């Protein structure tokens, strides 16, 4: 019997599969999309995310990130990473690196929909396969989380993300977060000739419409070619638990707050490692507690910032406060970077 079946071949699923293979498990990934996978993402990896990838043995090509800058119409505040360097990496480059390593390590990938999940005392069955455990890494809207009754309704204001790649040389070695009254634009260098821009917003509308809130950025990228836009959301997704019997949730499927602080992939990689350790030790009953402990600091900081940003009087003071209190700003950025 397969030891670990993984639903979803995104970063969380592939990292889980690689950790599993390293631990000597027989792992099969079921991914419904063929080819090299792309996704709406800011593509900024914090230093802790890069460290997770190094532990896995993956070093995707990208651009070094030395810190985070907050900008509004009047100026900017800069915070430098103290614990290492981050990296801007295109999702397609990351997917190729993770998928190649997984294949080298003997992970089998099957293309198709995982479908309905069933389980008994000894095994779980899905996608025509039977395994000892199933890692549900099926993304933000995880059908498995919902089917198992683990999804929780969410009352928070809905936010979406939309991303565009612009063909031009990066002008900064930091992720620039530009704050407008109802949205933020993330500018991440991802290649020598490419800049990724992700807009996070609670209002609907295409990329060009969203860009109107950032006139200086619009001026800067005007006339440069760009790729196909990709969108995702609503971002906030709640799960009452990360485990139901032999099924364990990982990555965005496990619950997501917002892309505002850019730590989604790092948390997915950290949780993937913990999930596999729990499976190997036969302690899957402890996985939910370990997930909560791993993500607590990030969840609080991200929820706090999203909450502050939803109140217009506080929102307009975020960048001035970061400028006025550079040590506090750097401290908060480094809480998320480590
Ligand atoms: C706008 C935006 C900006 C972001 N910026 C950043 C950032 O800068 N840095 C960062 O670290 N994170 C960022 N994130 C978060 C990051 O993109 C996610 O945390 C990350 O993609 C989670 O990976 P995952 O593998 O859990 O999910 P996904 O990448 O969504 O992968 C899930 C996979 O499951 C597959 N799947 C779904 N259902 C099934 C099924 N039934 N059967 C088989 N396969 C299935 C899908 O095809 C998909 O490939 C951002 C997110 C958004 C939306």
From TrEMBL:
Record-linked Pfam families: FAD_binding_3
GO molecular function: FAD binding
Transmembrane feature ranges: none
Sequence ranges assigned to domain FAD-binding in this UniProt record: 3-59, 129-276
InterPro entries: FAD-bd (IPR002938), FAD/NAD-bd_sf (IPR036188), Geranylgeranyl_reductase (IPR050407)
Descriptive protein name: FAD-binding domain-containing protein
């Amino acid at each position: 019997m397969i030891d670990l079946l993984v639903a979803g071949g995104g970063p969380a699923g592939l990292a889980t599969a690689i950790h599993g293979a390293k631990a000597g498990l027989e792992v099969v990934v079921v991914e419904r999309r063929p080819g090299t996978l792309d996704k709406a993402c800011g593509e900024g990896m914090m230093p802790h995310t890069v460290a997770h990838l190094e532990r896995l043995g993956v070093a995707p090509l990208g651009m070094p990130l030395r810190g985070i800058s907050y900008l509004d119409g009047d100026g900017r505040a800069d915070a430098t990473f103290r614990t290492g360097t981050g990296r801007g990496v295109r999702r397609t480059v990351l997917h190729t690196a993770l998928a190649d390593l997984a294949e080298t390590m003997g992970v089998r990938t099957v293309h198709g929909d995982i479908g309905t999940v069933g389980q008994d005392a000894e095994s779980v069955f899905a996608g025509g396969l039977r395994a000892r455990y199933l890692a549900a890494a099926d993304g933000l809207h995880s059908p498995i989380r919902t089917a198992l009754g683990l999804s929780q309704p969410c009352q928070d204001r809905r936010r979406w993300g939309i991303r565009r790649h612009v063909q031009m040389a990066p002008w900064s070695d930091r992720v620039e977060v530009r704050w407008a009254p109802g949205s933020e634009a993330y500018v991440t260098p991802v290649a020598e000739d490419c800049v990724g821009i992700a807009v996070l917003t609670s209002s609907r509308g295409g990329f060009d419409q969203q860009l109107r809130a950032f006139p200086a950025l619009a001026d800067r990228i005007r006339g440069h070619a760009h790729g196909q836009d990709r969108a995702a959301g609503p971002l906030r997704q709640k799960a009452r638990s990360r485990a139901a019997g032999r099924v364990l949730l990982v990555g965005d499927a496990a619950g997501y707050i917002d892309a505002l602080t850019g730590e989604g992939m790092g948390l997915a990689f950290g949780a993937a490692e913990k999930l596999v350790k729990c499976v190997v030790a036969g302690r899957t009953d402890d996985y939910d507690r370990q997930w909560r402990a791993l993500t607590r600091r990030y969840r609080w900081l991200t929820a706090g910032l999203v909450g502050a940003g939803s109140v217009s009087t506080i929102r307009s003071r975020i960048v001035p406060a970061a400028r006025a209190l550079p040590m506090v700003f750097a401290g908060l950025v480094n809480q998320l970077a480590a």
